[in-house]
Every structure is written in C-alpha cells, then in structure tokens.
Amino acid sequence: MPVIDRIADLSEEITAWRHDLHAHPELQYDVHRTAGFVADKLRAFGCDEVVTGIGRTGVVGVIRGRAHGSNRAIGLRADMDALPIQEIRDLPYRSTAPGKMHACGHDGHTAMLLGAAKYLAETRDFDGRAVLIFQPAEEGGGGGEAMVQDGMMERFGVEAVYGLHNVPGQPLGTFAIRPGPIMASTDRFTILIEGRGGHAALPQAAVDTVLVASHIVVALQSIVARNIDPLDSAVVSVCAVEAGEAFNVLPQTAELRGTMRALTPAVRGLMRERLAAIAENVAAAFGAQASVDFASGYPATENHPAETDFMADIAAQIVGEERVERDVAPMMAAEDFSYMLAHRPGAYIFMGNGDSAGLHHPEYDFNDAAIPYGTSLWARIIETGLPARE
C-alpha cells in the first residue's frame, strides 16, 4: 500500500500551502495568520468542527468518518511556529518577515496535516473521529503543554495521539522510530559567579571570575564523562559566557548559561545535582561564590510500545519495511509533543528530509518531495486505526 493516489494528486496544492506558510513565518504563540490560514482551510474542506484558541492560538479540526458505529478518536499533531533566524537562501517563497524563518520545517508539517485533512474530509473511509491538532509555540514556548492544559484531550475524546518531524540527512522516503525515549528532556541553567573585581595588573588583590568561570566550564564536562553511566545518554553544554567589558579590569561577576539534556528522569536529576555541586565548589576553591538557577524545559519524548509498532507498520505500508528503522537512536534535541504523550498513548516518528541543510540553519528548507509520504502516513493512521465496519 504505497503513497495514496489521491494524495499524490494533491501534492502540488499542498506544496503551494507550504510555500505560503514559509513566506509568512510567525513565532511561538504569535501565529495568528498561520492559525487563521489553517482554520480557513479546515472549514473549506468541510470539517465537522473547527475550534480556535486552544492553548492560546492552537487550532483543532474534527472530521467524522462515514460510519457512525464508533465514538473513538485519534489525534494527529503538527506544529505551526517558526524560528527567530534570518533566512539566507534566495527562494521564490523566501521569508517576508525579517529575522524570522521556518528553519525547522513546521511549515511542511502543517501543510501535510492540512493535506490529510482535505483527503479525510473527502473520503471519510473510517469509523470514528480524526482530531487534527495544529499547535503553536513548539520552539521553546510549550504550546503542547498549553493545549493539554486547556483540556484538549478530554474535550475531543482523544484516545491516542501521533506526531512527526522531518530529519535532514535521513533519506527521502524513509521513516525512523523507536519505543521508549526518542527525544531528550531539556533544562536551562544559569551560573552567577561573584568574585572580587580589581586591576588586571594586580591579580593578587582580586578574585578573578573569568578564571573561575573557565574552570567551571571545564569541570562541568566531567558530569557526562564521569558521573553518568556510559550506557546512558546525556549532554551538558555551556552556550554563553558573559564577564567584563575592559581589557585591564578583572570583573566582579561572570555568568554562564547553558543547557542539559537527558533521556530519563534519573539522569536528569543527577545532572542537576552534580552541576550545582561542581559550580559551587569550584568557585569556593578560588575564593569566589557561585549560585545556580535552573529553568525546567520539556520532558523527554517517550513513545508507547504498542502505538510505536502501529505507526511503524503504517509507515512500512507506505514506503516498504526495508525503509522503516524501528530502533533508531534517540535524538538529544527536545520536543514538546512529550506533554501530549504524557497524557495519552501515542508515538512520534522521524521522516527523511533528504540532503538538506540542518534544522535551525539559515539555509534549511523543508523538502517538498517528502509531502506525499507524510500526508499518506497521517491518512492511513486514521483509516487503519479507526477501521470502517462493513
């Protein structure tokens, strides 16, 4: 059962939607044009219900199957927001918003789910309800959590939920998935170091916060190297260092900011514990003080085993079993679809974007040739998961 013929016929139209979305990127919850575009399309397709304002600016469309023996509902989710990045490729549909671009492919995700909505509204060859979830603020805003907290799952009776993300470098026409953790949790940390400022020519009279910060940066790498089991996965990255303004002044304070990633709660907790201990004690060894502030981000994205097998089976129907990796290595990036999977069983799959620039890169572009695969996957999940009775 390869790509659905009708969806192949719709691919040019879906691509046009994708290009329109790409040209008009919006950030986090400020996706009013995008949400309006989505809602208008869903109404035009004849969806039975279109609800806006879920999770602030999210949109949910409901399509009922032709058969009416079941009240079961399956959710399909696409993210809508872009990134604060200046696009550098000269595309015909390049971003018209300075400093904003779809550098993660959410324009493609949204367009593919719209394509599935059009197909399902035409055919309705299933028994139950397809719940089409268009989410804002995946890029750091926690829009998935906001939609769940708005009661989306209960309101629309969602019993299982599925998500997808394109992956540059993964061959076109392939899918990859795994049971259990497939993407990491994320935590942000800020380390404020307080020393004693002074003249750079008289370091003995100062407590050099730049030196302290440098030692802390190096020591933090021991968390993954020496505290985490080598069979577990973890990342500690210091991404910003701020200290001083003059070439001859030892600054009074220095600040480090960074991120931690883990696949299990136990590793996540150990990393927080060790980071605070290392920062505080290294600073103390130099006569300085360090305070650590944590900001919790997304939890790990954990696939449910039965739903993972189901999603992989559907993908294999479309591209062939040999083009579906069922035990892919987890990715240490984070994803707020994790909140939906914490409330309902489901699964999250990677789809090949071919040889493109990486995610969050100013030259990235979603591969339109992937559209028939992702759109067919969504449609078959509904038709297979909610089979029409004879």
Brief synopsis:
Residues 189-283 form the Peptidase M20 dimerisation domain. The protein is an alpha/beta fold and 390 residues long.
Structural features, described:
A hairpin with a 3-residue loop joins β1 and β2. With 390 residues, the protein is an alpha/beta fold. The chain is built from ten helices and 16 strands. The radius of gyration is 24 Å and the shape is elongated. The mean pLDDT is 97. α1 packs antiparallel against α3, α2 runs parallel beside α3 and α8 crosses α10. The chain is 36% helix and 24% strand. The strands form four sheets. An eight-stranded mixed sheet has the order 1-2-4-3-5-16-6-15, with helices on both faces. A four-stranded antiparallel sheet has the order 10-12-8-13, covered by helices on one side.
Name the helix and strand elements from N-terminus to C-terminus, one letter apiece: HHEEEHEHHEEEEEHEEEHEEHEHEH
Report the sheet-strand fraction: 15-25%
Oligomer: single chain
Roughly how many Å apart are the termini? 20 Å
Any low-confidence stretches, pLDDT <50, length ≥5? Answer: none
What is the number of strand segments? Answer: 16
- Which geometry do the CA atoms define? elongated
Return the average pLDDT rounded to an integer. Answer: 97
Read across the widest sheet, the strand sequence of neighbours is 1-2-4-3-5-16-6-15
Q: Share of helix among residues?
A: 25-40%
Q: Which structural category do the helix and sheet elements fall into? A: alpha/beta
